[in-house]
Amino acid sequence: MTYRYFYLVLAVLCLNTSIYSQKDTSKPKRLLIFPVIAKSIETGWSFGTAGALTFRLSPKDTLSRTSNLQLLLLYSTKKQLITAINGSQYFDKEKYVLNEQFSFSSYPDKFWGLGKNTPDSAEESYKFNQYYIYLHLLRKIAPDLFVGLLFEMQRVWDITYQAGGLFDKQNVPGRTGYHVAGLGSSITYDTRNNAFAPDKGLFFQFSFNHFDKFWGSQFNYTNVVLDLRKYVPIFHNQVLAFQLFSFNNTGEVPIRSHASFGGANRMRGYYDGRYKDLNQLIVQGEYRFPVYKRFGAVAFGGGGNVGRTATDYSFSSLKFSYGAGIRFALDKKEKLNLRVDYGIGQGKNSGFYLQLGEAF
Predict the structure, then answer these.
(1) pLDDT digits (tens, 9 = 90+) for 259-292
(2) Distance, CA of 7 to CA of 268 (rounded, Å)
(3) Residues 6+ away with beta carbon under 8 Å from 315
(4) What is the pLDDT of residues 100-132, one digit of tens each?
């Protein structure tokens, strides 16, 4: 999934600027602007600038969660350029919620072929340019219950890959470049108490998105996603967090829209895209606890797989990962954390993640 690129960030040097309205102190805004030094399995070391703005759209609304808008400009030692704007806005009493992402990537990447059993020795490099637009408008229909409309657009061009390699042999759809557009809907139940690092509540979202030539897509396919998260406070600010994530496609699916196993948010320890196929199922958990003042720590683990069909999810072929990390609270009130995680997968899969915000 293309919006994964936004989260490849750690601010080692942080310039923290607080902005408050002089006319209305009940309408706080908080702006964090900082140079970035980042590291992940996918990018290696990266450098750039990031910003995070938190605010309230209605000064008298104390029930809605804090809105946010985040900006990233990043260039890696592997010659990867990533620019992105990402955010969530909560309107008065959360009657409406808007989530959005706009991104551009010029990105050398890796490919091991399609399927759950691709060997490490199959690694192949390829490169592409991509822009991505994602809009999700939600309307509250009952307490904590929302229905939504989705729009997603993706254009991929200047794809270069090894002639006679895996892209050619597996006849990967979209390997010469493509444009897709999708419209869909969603239903969401959300009782989380915080947008960045909830410590209680439930999040359930089921979304359906159809890509069709009728509205300009070069490929016809349907994407269905189920995202279920539960946050359980235990004692002394300690939290257990759980996630079940199911990502499913039917139809002719281009390469950048396949299920992508691994990354900074799910199955840490695996390169994002180490395993790719039409479908993905993942279950993961995390134990979060405070350490000292602004510092905290986590321990995490998970299991899952990719597959062409649901029958591919046999227990004998499941893949597992585990690890631990530390947290530093950039903004204690809004619970905006810097995180450093080390994830360990099976075989030779492992690595550090230096990020902004929690994994889920």
Answers:
(1) 999 999 999 999 999 999 999 999 999 999 999 9
(2) 13
(3) none
(4) 999 999 989 999 999 999 998 999 999 999 999
- What are 327's two structure tokens? 């947290």
- Residue 325 to residue 323: CA distance in whole angstroms: 7
Both tokens of residue 230? 């539960």
Residues in a beta bridge with 211: 182, 221
The 8-class DSSP code of residue 66 comes to P
Radius of gyration of the chain (CA): 20
158 burial level (CB within 10 Å; 0-12, 13-18, 19+): exposed
Mean pLDDT in residue range 61-88:
88
Of 66, 30, 73, 32, give the one whose Cα is nearest residue 51: 32
For domain 2-356, give the CATH number. Answer: 2.40.160.50
The closest alpha carbon to 68, from 206, 186, 197, 187, belongs to: 197
- C-alpha angle 267/270/275, rounded to 5°? 95
